[in-house]
Amino acid sequence: LTHIHQQLYVVIPALVKNLSDSDKDVRRMTAFALGELGPDGKPAVPALIQSLKDEDVSVRGWTTEALKKIDPLAAAQAGMK
């Protein structure tokens, strides 16, 4: 992940795009990957908040966890504990 952190300006937009992929597994794993970036993933917060409305419960679950890792305040404002 160290190399990825150095390339966030490329990685985050690509991951955000994948949050709207037609495959729920891609969306789920994308949310997980964004969460692994921790606070460095903050530019993805608006897209993650939108993903809280995903039709798939597992995508919503991983999105919730990602938001908590990236920006606990944004998670709290979105109504998460």
The multimeric state of the shown protein is single chain
Class based on secondary structure composition and strand pairing: mainly alpha
How many DSSP H or I helices? 6
The major beta sheet can be summarized as: none
The share of residues in helices is 55-70%
Series of secondary-structure elements, N-terminal to C-terminal: HHHHHH
Structure description:
- The protein has helices at 2-6, 8-18, 24-36, 45-51, 57-70, 72-77.
- The model has no long low-confidence stretch (mean pLDDT 91).
- By secondary structure, it is mainly α.
- The protein has 6 helices and no strands.
- It is 69% helix and 0% strand.
- The relative contact order is 0.17.
- Helix 2 (8-18) runs antiparallel to helix 3 (24-36), helix 3 runs parallel beside helix 5 (57-70) and helix 4 runs antiparallel to helix 5 (57-70).
